[in-house]
Amino acid sequence: MRRESIDMRIGELSRRTGVSTRSLRYYEQQGLLRAERAANGYRDYAESAVIRAANIQGLLRAGLTVDDIREPLDTGCLNEPLGQLPLCEGALQTATDRLDELDRRIGALRQLRERLAEQVTRTRNALAANERN
């Protein structure tokens, strides 16, 4: 197997993907993205990092977590643009589980909002009653 050439620094990867350098460093820290270190300590990325970084960012924006993304990375499921990937084992279940969790959180937030709205109404009514008296 031929080793992929390493020739891109973090600033160029950021420009090509729209992912901030801070996020790229975070992805690396979390084991989602790999960089070689040059003799001067700079991070050098392979060309494949462009697709991988963009995919990671897209999945995080869609609501998945770093842990959700880690497994497909290990199987090579994020090395091609998301629209061209074969279905990764477990990907649908992971996304469904995350969606269910978001639905539970939204439901809890709606209940909290209703309680707060009721409290605001009671407080306004009490203030209005006090002003009339």
TrEMBL record:
Keywords, in A-Z order: Coiled coil, DNA-binding, Repressor, Transcription, Transcription regulation
PROSITE patterns per UniProt: HTH_MERR_1 (PS00552), HTH_MERR_2 (PS50937)
Presence of the UniProt keyword Lipid metabolism in the record: no
InterPro entries registered for this protein in UniProt: DNA-bd_dom_put_sf (IPR009061), MerR-type_HTH_dom (IPR000551), MerR_fam (IPR047057)
HTH merR-type domain location: 7-75
Coiled coil: 92-133
Top-rank lineage group of the source organism: Bacteria
CDD domains, sorted: HTH_MerR-like_sg3
Pfam family, one: MerR_1
GO molecular function, one term: DNA-binding transcription factor activity
Xref: SUPFAM superfamilies: Putative DNA-binding domain
PANTHER family: MERR-FAMILY TRANSCRIPTIONAL REGULATOR, REDOX-CYCLING DRUG-SENSING TRANSCRIPTIONAL ACTIVATOR SOXR
Record protein name field: MerR family transcriptional regulator
Organism listed in the record: Streptomyces sp. R35
